[in-house]
Amino acid sequence: MTKQTISVQLSTAKKQKPKADQLEFGRTFTDHMFIMDYSAESGWHDPRIIPYQPIEMDPAAMVYHYGQSVFEGLKAYLSNKGKVLLFRPEKNVERLNKSNDRLCIPRVDPDTVLEGLKQLLQIDKEWIPTAEGTSLYIRPFIISTEPYLGVAPSKTYKLLIILSPVGSYYKEGIHPVKIAVESEFVRAVAGGTGNAKTAGNYAASLKAQEVAESKGFSQVLWLDGIEKKYIEEVGSMNIFFKINGEIVTPALNGSILEGITRNSVIYLLKQWGLSVTEKRISVDELIQAHKVGQLEEAFGTGTAAVISPVGELIWKEENFVINNGKTGEIAKKLYDTITGIQKGALPDSFGWTVEVDSVSQTC
Amino acid sequence: MTKQTISVQLSTAKKQKPKADQLEFGRTFTDHMFIMDYSAESGWHDPRIIPYQPIEMDPAAMVYHYGQSVFEGLKAYLSNKGKVLLFRPEKNVERLNKSNDRLCIPRVDPDTVLEGLKQLLQIDKEWIPTAEGTSLYIRPFIISTEPYLGVAPSKTYKLLIILSPVGSYYKEGIHPVKIAVESEFVRAVAGGTGNAKTAGNYAASLKAQEVAESKGFSQVLWLDGIEKKYIEEVGSMNIFFKINGEIVTPALNGSILEGITRNSVIYLLKQWGLSVTEKRISVDELIQAHKVGQLEEAFGTGTAAVISPVGELIWKEENFVINNGKTGEIAKKLYDTITGIQKGALPDSFGWTVEVDSVSQTC
């Protein structure tokens, strides 16, 4: 696939930007969006940047009925030198294509998508918030558009990239959450779609989350769908534990999402000389470690929150407080380091940040 | 919930109807559709019939990202007395609400939805094809519409009903298909969404179906996600076997869809004095029965095909021909009886068919 030329149609009306202290997650969108179409005859074609606008589709469009769709999530930051920075965006496009394979969606050309994203960011650069903890959330997604009710892969698709300025995930700074180990509902199982970033996984998670919230917990800790014994993910994040000085995280097993923050955390921990092991972790093992005082830290990792410390686990109506309900040392250091690298405030020894070059764009 | 008044806006331009011999499944849609909105403040409101038209939504609409959606499928027939007949439509609305519960979507008022469907059918009555094997396929569906990227139940929804005249599922009459037992991919697992009619289940099934088709098989036979040992469904249908004179079908276990055709088949078989058992059936047991010559019939059941005989099973590269690859006696009798009842050609001793009353509608 060759990189295609991206056409640009600028918006004539500019929307009002929200104030830094009013930013929420994923509710406000910028002035423009990137869009590209797929048909069997033309492949992925007509990449373009247009004013942010509703999309119009036939009610029989397959995404509404059979959920054939994939998405990604990443963030852009404005460095204190005024540069637009992305964090490992090539990993997102790589994962998008892996999700495409699982969902029978044609692969995209990574260069075209990354170029489209960069141009879009240049155009909507003024939307990138700069206050502590804020960023511009980027949502690339692909939806199946063929108006057909047969259960089969769609013959047409749309890829879109939309941008949303987001506030700090933690209104009062990073703080630990209470999570319930989920023993009834299952998010995914080996052979299913758990390791693809596709809509159905998130739809399946809503009920357990609703039940957990009604009991006063923030998130659920998912167990494997087979034995309901091994730890998989927390909410829509990967999970790490520090047990007796060693850091462990569930090994990728086909039903766990291969998080880019997860991968970055593993690299950083190793660089710091810490022991980190990807392995199968049972909930019994975890509770046992807690009982003997060796469960020292727990935290989730994901794009939205970056690092989300777990202060309390609930399992079979019993509560297990971790690290006195406080943010652990490792979690804090990871949060500061990753957000520091993302914003260009800390040295980036892994070459993770990508600077979006200025283009001569009047906007 | 009280039944609401349905407003009607008729189409000024009529589309050309396809010829009976050109009908496919789910590609052509009628002149009108039913639509209704949900908001937290107004509940389900503004039920209306409008010309069939594209729907316009924000690119951040939750259905595109997190697949919070449910659907149903049923058919309307025109009897030889010119009456519009539905087959157990109240069961579809009941199941729609069960799916709503699992997907955290607010329940609908069954009377409003059924009344909307009936009025829509009266208006588009001329679209109901009458040739042998044809019918009007009805697709009610609900999609989440809130423009928000947080993973949470949407605060707004749309319910639509669209209609599609469909041809015979079997171009050359009912005929047996080859199906492969799926040992890699999993459709659903207990605790997941397998017993809800939601988009993600179908997205998850595409890859296995694609692989099966590339090897010359029509469908896959799904095994349970836990032990990959017990039979669940075939493609997007329920499955029945006749083993040594006894009819068996997998018991509803939380990951199997509660098919309305499945339920009707069980009733009919019992009425005919046949033994029918809902139980856990292992693939080993099935293969064993075949080896001793006791696997006498196999057939799928579902709205689209009604009854789909299985002529050959493929398991671990071995082929097992059933009933000499021919349609079994039971499958044929069930197909003739159910379609006969659906079209009003046979007596309906269970009171399954619902006649859509004429309304004084000029269309």
From TrEMBL, chains A, B:
<dbReference type="GO" id="GO:0009097">
    <property type="term" value="P:isoleucine biosynthetic process"/>
</dbReference>
<keyword id="KW-0028">Amino-acid biosynthesis</keyword>
<keyword id="KW-0663">Pyridoxal phosphate</keyword>
<dbReference type="InterPro" id="IPR043131">
    <property type="entry name" value="BCAT-like_N"/>
</dbReference>
<dbReference type="InterPro" id="IPR033939">
    <property type="entry name" value="BCAT_family"/>
</dbReference>
<comment type="pathway">
    <text>Amino-acid biosynthesis; L-leucine biosynthesis; L-leucine from 3-methyl-2-oxobutanoate: step 4/4.</text>
</comment>
<dbReference type="InterPro" id="IPR001544">
    <property type="entry name" value="Aminotrans_IV"/>
</dbReference>
<dbReference type="InterPro" id="IPR018300">
    <property type="entry name" value="Aminotrans_IV_CS"/>
</dbReference>
<comment type="pathway">
    <text>Amino-acid biosynthesis; L-isoleucine biosynthesis; L-isoleucine from 2-oxobutanoate: step 4/4.</text>
</comment>
<keyword id="KW-0808">Transferase</keyword>
<dbReference type="GO" id="GO:0009098">
    <property type="term" value="P:L-leucine biosynthetic process"/>
</dbReference>
<dbReference type="InterPro" id="IPR043132">
    <property type="entry name" value="BCAT-like_C"/>
</dbReference>
<keyword id="KW-0100">Branched-chain amino acid biosynthesis</keyword>
<keyword id="KW-0032">Aminotransferase</keyword>
<dbReference type="InterPro" id="IPR036038">
    <property type="entry name" value="Aminotransferase-like"/>
</dbReference>
<comment type="similarity">
    <text>Belongs to the class-IV pyridoxal-phosphate-dependent aminotransferase family.</text>
</comment>
<feature type="modified residue" description="N6-(pyridoxal phosphate)lysine">
    <location>
        <position position="197"/>
    </location>
</feature>
<dbReference type="InterPro" id="IPR005786">
    <property type="entry name" value="B_amino_transII"/>
</dbReference>
<dbReference type="GO" id="GO:0004084">
    <property type="term" value="F:branched-chain-amino-acid transaminase activity"/>
</dbReference>
<dbReference type="GO" id="GO:0009099">
    <property type="term" value="P:L-valine biosynthetic process"/>
</dbReference>
<dbReference type="Pfam" id="PF01063">
    <property type="entry name" value="Aminotran_4"/>
</dbReference>
<protein>
    <recommendedName>
        <fullName>Branched-chain-amino-acid aminotransferase</fullName>
        <ecNumber>2.6.1.42</ecNumber>
    </recommendedName>
</protein>
